[in-house]
Specification:
Layout: E1 9-10, E2 16-23, H1 25-34, E3 47-49, H2 53-60, E4 70-77, H3 78-86, E5 88-90, H4 101-110, E6 113-121, E7 127-137, H5 140-149, E8 150-155, H6 157-168, H7 172-178, E9 183-184, H8 189-192
Parallel strand pairs: 5-6
Antiparallel strand pairs: 1-9, 2-4, 3-7, 4-8, 6-7
Length: 197
């Protein structure tokens, strides 16, 4: 079945959605231990969250890239995630979505969140013909993410390593069975209309 070009695919429950990030062990392991981001985590810079597990694997090299050795599954409230979508701006100018480049730049400066759509990845981390959402949080959104939205933080590094080993041996069926179950997220049209390229 053909996939829509822009769909948020994620593991989610009635009240939460799982997003992924990767950090050095110095930041990631205390976050897992405490269930929240600790003092070493920078609140004053943009942080990108990704609902797609395989896009995170592409970004962090299965947890092997320097500074991204600890892969976190961060369960956040759906209310928070949807607030982030409603208050987001596309990370780049798109003719037809924005009145003009100057209007986009003004919106980008004001928006606490930004959206980027990048090619989704398959198990071999090759690009697919449809897009995966990344959500950049800054300012108020970072504070809300850390202090209000985060419900739980799990270390999924062992899963990343196990999947990488299976893919390396060509055992794609076994790897597929271990992947987090991601389904199209039921974001309302009003939440996404201003975020489509």
């Amino acid at each position: 079945m053909e996939q829509p070009r822009h769909t948020i695919r994620a593991a989610y429950s009635e009240s939460t959605i799982t997003v992924y990030q990767a950090y050095s062990p110095e930041i990631g392991l205390p976050a897992v231990r405490d269930g929240r981001f600790s003092a070493g985590w920078k609140r004053d810079r943009m942080t990108w969250i990704k609902p797609s597990f395989l896009w995170m694997m592409y970004r962090c090299g299965w947890g092997a890239k320097e500074g991204q050795e600890t892969v976190l599954a961060v369960e956040i409230s759906r209310d928070g995630f949807e607030w982030a979508l409603r208050n987001a701006c596309l990370s780049s100018y798109v003719r037809g979505v924005h009145p003009d480049r100057a209007a986009w730049q003004r919106q980008l400066k004001r928006a606490p969140t930004r959206v980027q759509w990048d090619p989704e990845r398959d198990l071999r981390l090759q690009p697919l013909p449809y897009r995966s959402l990344q959500l950049g949080l800054s300012g108020e959104a970072v504070r809300r993410y850390a202090d209000e939205w985060t419900v739980a933080i799990r270390d999924v590094t062992p899963l990343a390593h196990r999947l990488h080993a299976l893919v390396s041996r060509g055992e794609l069926d076994s790897a597929t069975r271990l992947l987090p179950q991601e389904l199209p997220y039921p974001a309302g049209a009003e939440s996404l209309a201003h975020l489509l390229e």
